[in-house]
Design goal:
This protein has 164 residues and is mainly beta. It has one domain: Pnp Oxidase, Chain A (Roll), CATH 2.30.110. 13% of the residues lie in helices and 42% in strands. The protein has three helices and twelve strands. The protein has helices spanning 10-17, 64-70, 83-89; strands at 22-23, 25-31, 34-40, 43-47, 52-55, 72-77, 102-104, 110-112, 117-129, 132-144, 152-154, 157-159. It has a seven-stranded antiparallel sheet. A hairpin with a 5-residue loop joins strand 7 (102-104) and strand 8 (110-112). It is globular, with a radius of gyration of 16 Å. One of its GO terms (molecular function) is riboflavin reductase (NADPH) activity.
């Protein structure tokens, strides 16, 4: 068996990849008058021209198919004070928006109060990628908001950035 076809233990993969610190987002959309959302740490800028971003929902997500159908979404970059909010959006089912302050963004998708930044976008394309889907979305709006700093995820736990 060659290295490119080696069978790797998922726990080892998670532990090693956990050494890469990421920010945390909540992907949101509005279905009529019902807000939808899920937590997502795999988010990145893809291209400036055209303006594209990418995120990777789990194939087991029950929220992503609904957001995909709507096609218009917001990526809310969470602030360090939003750990509890992140936990609420990381679970499957239930009313994730219970007690959450939000307003419709410019594209109608929920803009979460207190988020560090918001990227509004429309779904451009998707690619199957193992147990996740790679979504590429075209940016239609950008908003940076005042905050103390980002919510970070590292080695399976949340943290924050210490300023010098």
């Amino acid at each position: 068996m060659t290295a490119e076809h080696a069978v790797l233990d998922p726990r080892t993969m998670r532990d090693v990849m956990g050494n890469f610190c990421t920010g945390v987002t909540v992907i949101t959309a509005l279905d009529g008058d019902k807000p939808l959302g899920f937590a997502c740490q795999s988010f990145t800028s893809v291209s400036l021209e055209p303006p594209l971003v990418s995120f990777c929902p789990a194939r087991t997500s029950t929220t992503w198919p609904k957001i995909r159908e709507i096609g218009t979404l917001a990526i809310n970059v969470l602030a360090e004070s939003q750990r509890t909010l992140c936990a609420a959006f990381a679970v499957s089912g239930g009313n994730k928006f219970h007690g959450v302050d939000w307003v419709p963004g410019d594209n109608g998708a929920p803009a979460l109060e207190g988020a560090l930044a918001r990227v509004e976008a429309t779904v451009e394309t998707e690619h199957d990628a193992g147990d996740h889907t790679i979504v590429v979305a075209r940016v239609t709006g950008l908003t940076a908001l005042p905050s103390n700093g980002p919510l970070l995820f590292y080695r399976g736990t949340y943290g924050h950035f210490d300023r010098l």
